[in-house]
Amino acid sequence: MNTGSDMLWLALVVLGGSLAVALTLVGVLLLRLREVEQRIPEKESGHESVLDRLLENEFRLRTIIESEPECVKLQAEDGTVLEINPAGLRLVDANQPADIIGRKIYSVVAPEYIEIYRENMRRVFAGEAVVYEFRAITLTNRIRWMETHAAPLRDARGHIYALLGITRDITEHKQAEEQARRHQTELARVARLSTMGEMATGIAHELNQPLSAIANFSRGCIRRLRSGEITTEEMIEPLVEVCEQAERAGEILRHVRDFVRKSELKTKPMDINQIVRAVVKFTEHEARHHRTMMHLQLDPKLPKVEADSIMIEQVICNLVRNAVEAMAEANSPRREITIRTHLFGNDAIEIEIGDTGPGIDEAIMDQVFDQFFTTKPDGVGMGLSISRSIIESHGGHVRAESGGTGASFRFTLPTSEGQTTKHERADSLHS
Ligand code: ADP
Predict the structure, then answer these.
(1) What is the pLDDT, as a whole number, of residue 428?
(2) Residue 308 CA to ligand 1 centre (angstroms)
(3) Dihedral Cα 139, 140, 144, 149, nearest 10 deg
(4) CATH class for the domain made up of 66-169
(5) Strand pairing partners for 130?
(6) CA 167 to CA 230: how far, in whole Å?
(7) Using a 6 Å cutoff on CB, does residue 407 contact ligand 1?
(8) 334: Cβ contacts below 8 Å, ≥ 6 apart
């Protein structure tokens, strides 16, 4: 074999080897490609099953929500209705979802409740779950009472993107409650009238006697003076009689006053915050009716006060009603009442009822506590005067202030501990 053919053989072997390596590589690549090709549909079918499951879940949730007998709705932060179920559509008298979805919920909230509704929405979007009542005017102008349980709805990152509300119609319940309240008010009014009537008849009867005697003695004196048949000496006896009878009349009135004061005051250690909350409960309805919001800033760590709770309720109630009326009469754009309680010195608690109304004119500031002083067309002018008597009979003080934002009434009540130490001190002085 010559070297030329050797070289050719060598070249052929090298070429064959490289070809084999190249073919193997291509084969491997093709195999990989097939594998990848096979895997793609696998992945796709994986995606599809996740999607299916999601759709199935959504369908299931939708079926539950749509067959839910209560109204379930989602609202955006500005009040836009995003979703509502068929029960919700029926609740607002909507014929189809488009009648309410995309519209603001405020279009079915009574005007005096819009601000309260907004405040509750703000609380939900701040992360709170709240329950609130409001009056609704449906799309066909029917007036209904509603109660909503609302909670924030968060996305995967925890961001609140909607309000989830479950609302039900509580109109019948409200009407029954209102009827019971009216009935109770009427009963209290009749009871008060009959007690006052009885007392007035009793006082008139008691006073009639000394007054008739005064009239008779005076008439006798005048007659005898006119006819000139009486001496100065003889005048003295009937005039003494007149004085005595007048004093008796005064005594009767004093008794009545003492009776009214003593018989009605039944004090015991009371939680002032509890009294405030009780008043808020029964004045809330009236406040809402006049679009007034009530805020409480109650110090939770207060000692007990020595009080007749019914009487103190009456005082706070008078002050709250006056604030509601003042703001409604002045048509104040912002209507808020804040009730605060805090410690006052070592042995008293101060209760403050502040409003955002027109305030009290400096010229009448000194008269507001006077009996029969009123600036209202149908006012009686007894509320503040009675309130002051009640507070003073408890050993407290009341004062009115008028600043830039409205009027504020503050009164103090002695704490039970303060009262005890005072009594102990008084007892030790007497012994
Ligand atoms: P009435 O409510 O029958 O008028 P009150 O003794 O309760 O009797 O009140 C006397 C007056 O005090 C009211 O007519 C009003 O002029 C004034 N007043 C009381 N509270 C307020 C208030 N919060 N804001 C403005 N004025 C008030």
Answers:
(1) 37
(2) 24
(3) -20
(4) alpha beta
(5) 150
(6) 89
(7) yes
(8) 356
Distances in whole angstroms, Cα of residue 212 to Cα of each of 7, 76, 206, 233? 162, 78, 11, 23
Q: What is the pLDDT of residues 131-188, one digit of tens each?
A: 999 999 999 999 999 999 999 999 889 999 999 999 999 999 988 888 877 777 766 6
Atom of ligand 1 at shortest range from CA of 381:
8
Q: Cα separation of 216 and 354, whole Å?
A: 55
Which pLDDT does position 114 carry in this prediction?
Answer: 93
* 326: number of Cβ within 10 Å: 21
Whether the pTM exceeds 0.85: the reply is no
Q: Is 381 in the pocket of ligand 1 (CB under 6 A)?
A: yes
14-28, 140-154, 337-351, 410-424: lowest mean pLDDT where? 14-28
Give the CATH fold of the 175-264 domain. Helix Hairpins (1.10.287)
- Residue 251 identity: E
User: Using a 6 Å cutoff on CB, does residue 323 contact ligand 1?
Assistant: yes
Q: Is ligand 1 within 6 A of the CB of residue 337?
A: no
Instruction: For 177-221, write each residue's pLDDT tens digit.
Output: 888 777 777 666 666 666 666 667 777 777 888 898 899 989 989
Residue 140 DSSP label: T
Count of alpha carbons within 13 Å of 220, Cβ hemisphere only?
A: 14
Fold that domain 265-423 belongs to in CATH? Heat Shock Protein 90 (3.30.565)
pLDDT value, residue 15: 44
Give the rounded percent of residues in the chain with a pLDDT score beyond 70.
Answer: 81
pLDDT at position 293 is: 94
Structure-token match 């006053």, residue found: 257
CB contact at 8 A, 302 and 343: yes
- 62 Cα–ligand 1 center, Å: 55
